[in-house]
Amino acid sequence: MGQKVKRFFRFYPFIQDFNFQLNMMNTIERAIQAFLSHNNYPQFDLKAILFDMDGVLFDSMPNHALSWHTVMKAHGLDLSCEEAYLHEGRKGDDTIQIVCRKQGVIISDKETKAIYKEKTEIFKILPTPVRMAGSYELLKKVMSDGLIPMLVTGSGQASLLDSLNVSFPGVFLKERMVTAFDVKLGKPNPEPYLKALEKGNLKPWETIVIENAPLGIEAAHKAGLFVVVVNTGPLSDSILWEAGANLFYPSMLALHEAWEKIMEYFKLKI
Ligand code: CA
């Protein structure tokens, strides 16, 4: 911003704020228009919001990354905590087989399952992950808007799935959840999101997705869905944009704060 413009806004701050708000609204409107026209969909008619779990509802990714690194090391395999974030959203068995293949290790299905079981045990003894700040408040807004929250996760981590009803009481009904147990092909395959459309009896323009990881974003994008991304982890914004983000927020708290503005645009039925 030039010096003259900065001086002008110092004297008329309300105009800058108005200008900022206008820019924000335009970003949302532009994202919706581009998405609808690219997919050749009619206007949005929102009925449900599809939530990923790890890194969106729970601040659980540091524990996942640490348990992955620990279990791999114990089996002579190499996966840094940072690399674990690039596998986020994948089914556990798939992650193990990909890491083995890359390192030239041949592994049976039985061994794969044993390593995954071990990983879930390590995760269980780490401190219980807390709710992501802003996530419960956002879910309450979603429900008060008359929208249905659904869960779409690649996780088979029973200890975390079982705690959903404690952390988010009455929010996710079993028939509105897609987990590792419901799909053959996990993220980045679109199957989990297509399964959610089937379970919720939804058309792609009746829902949007909240995701935080490249593989999850890719899965939702391939399923033809609008993806709102929250960058709650260590990866760069560009990796998440390239995976297929339609709208972008730096945290769940920021998304929670922007929610009413976002919904105004979806209700406009652009
Ligand atoms: Ca995630």
Low-confidence stretches: none
**Which CATH class of the largest domain applies here?**
Alpha Beta
The biggest sheet amounts to: 6 strands, parallel
Output the number of helix runs: 13
Shape: globular
Query: What is the chain-wise order of helices and strands?
Result: HHEHHHHHEHHEHEHEHEH
CATH superfamily of the largest domain: HAD superfamily/HAD-like
End-to-end CA span: 31 Å
Strand order of the largest sheet: 3-2-1-4-5-6
Overall mean pLDDT stands at 90
Q: Tally the beta strands.
A: 6
Helicity level, as a percent range? 40-55%
**Count of distinct structural domains:** 2
Structural Rg: 20 Å
- CATH topology annotation of the largest domain: Rossmann fold
What features would you describe in this structure?
There is one protein chain. A six-stranded parallel β-sheet has the order 3-2-1-4-5-6. It contains 13 helices and six strands. The protein folds into two domains: 41-59 and 130-267, Rossmann fold (3-Layer(aba) Sandwich), CATH 3.40.50; 61-125, Orthogonal Bundle (DNA polymerase, domain 1), CATH 1.10.150.240. The protein is an alpha/beta fold. The chain is globular and about 55 Å long. 39% of the residues are buried. The chain starts with a helix and ends with a helix. The longest helix is centred in the N-terminal third of the chain and has 27 residues, at 13-39. The structure holds calcium ion (CA).
